Amino acid sequence: MTPLLITVTLLLASAGVIYFASEFFVNGVEWLGRTLSVGRTATGTILAAFGTALPESVITFVAVAFGKGDHQRELGVGAALGGPLVLATIAYATVGATLILSGRHLKRTAAVRQEFARLSRDQGAFLAIFVVKLGVGLIAFAYKPWLGVAFLSAYALYFWREMSRGDTDDGEEAIEPLIIARKRPGPPPLAFSLLQTLAASVVIFLASRLFVGQLDALGPTLGLRPQLLALLLSPIATELPETMNAIIWVRQGKHRLALANISGAMMIQATVPTAFGLFWTPWLLDRSLILAGGVTAAAVTVMFISFRRGVISRGFLASMGLFYGLFAILLVTLRL
Questions:
Q1: How far apart are CA 16 and CA 208, in angstroms?
Q2: Is 109 left (phi over 0), alpha (psi -120 to 50) or beta?
Q3: Could you report the per-residue pLDDT of 53-108, keeping only the tens digit for each?
Q4: Strand, helix or coil at 284?
């Protein structure tokens, strides 16, 4: 078997493992939220997002705090910008595409419009934080590292707000029996839900690292420059768990959880990795990262307006992928 074939095989196998483990994760995290009396939306924005986005934050932390040389630290900063770009474009587009392929539509009920209004507040909060994140990366000043505390505080405030809010329609969506306790009567114990969720998170994390490693190996074979690979393909790989979760939840008719998971992951990506970058790097953005940030801000602005007006449709969500296409075209055309 040739090295290229081995790389492609491992790439596909790791993607399959991520999807399989995501089935266990979304099932476990739903029961975890039910057992802890966490609202349905908070289950997506906090519990699910924490499990899927935290590993990427750890990777950024390792890169900027313990990276050997400026190159690795720059990759960590790039990951902090690339993640939100993928979530705001590819992840939302995946929700729309899955709705179309599964023949499902977004309901036009008052409850759905209320949920869209709530998600618009998340988009607005993300946009405000993200603009500050970009602005700080354009200038150099002595006290910049201290701003990392402000970004961590912003996420702590978001966490508290989400966990303190209650949902009024938790009973509308049934949950499949916990996979590791299917034959056990009644609701599963908290320990079982926690065990399944944590075990699935570990498998997703390890499979994601394998996926990214094979993608990095495949890049030179395809003639892609390392910088182009890091900005265009690697962020898609690192955000694969959120994308897989979205596919699974939409197929189950739970688009609310899918959208909440993406929204919550975006808030983590806007704050925690940024704080790490501010603590251990100069946090000065080059032109390619500024472009990525600008496209992200534009995409989120469109989402904010649409969510606020309640005009979201599956076709609209699918079209968000065009923003990522625009980023790729500008990145190559401008040779950034």
A1: 11
A2: beta
A3: 776 777 778 777 776 667 667 777 877 888 899 999 999 999 999 999 988 888 77
A4: coil
- Helix (H) or strand (E) run with residue 47 in it: none
pTM of the model: 0.86
**Residues 262, 263, 268, CA angle at the centre, nearest 5°?**
95
Q: What share of the chain is helix, strand, coil (3-state, %, to 5)?
A: 80, 0, 20
d(CA 22, CA 57): 19
* DSSP 3-state of 222: coil
Whole-angstrom Cα distance, residue 16 to residue 128?
36
Instruction: Confirm if 218 and 14 have CB atoms less than 8 A apart.
Output: no
Residue among 129, 108, 98, 122 at smallest CA distance from 243? 98
Q: For the purposes of burial, counting CB atoms within 10 Å of the CB of 105, is it exposed (0-12), middle (13-18) or buried (19 or more)?
A: exposed
119-157 CB burial, b ≥16 within 10 A, e <16: bbebbbbbbebbebbbebbeeeeeebeebbeebbebbee
Provide the residue type at 166 as one letter.
G
Query: Dihedral of the CA atoms 328, 225, 14, 65 (nearest 10)?
Result: -100
Assigned token pair, 83: 């993640």
Q: How far apart are CA 317 and CA 215, in angstroms?
A: 27
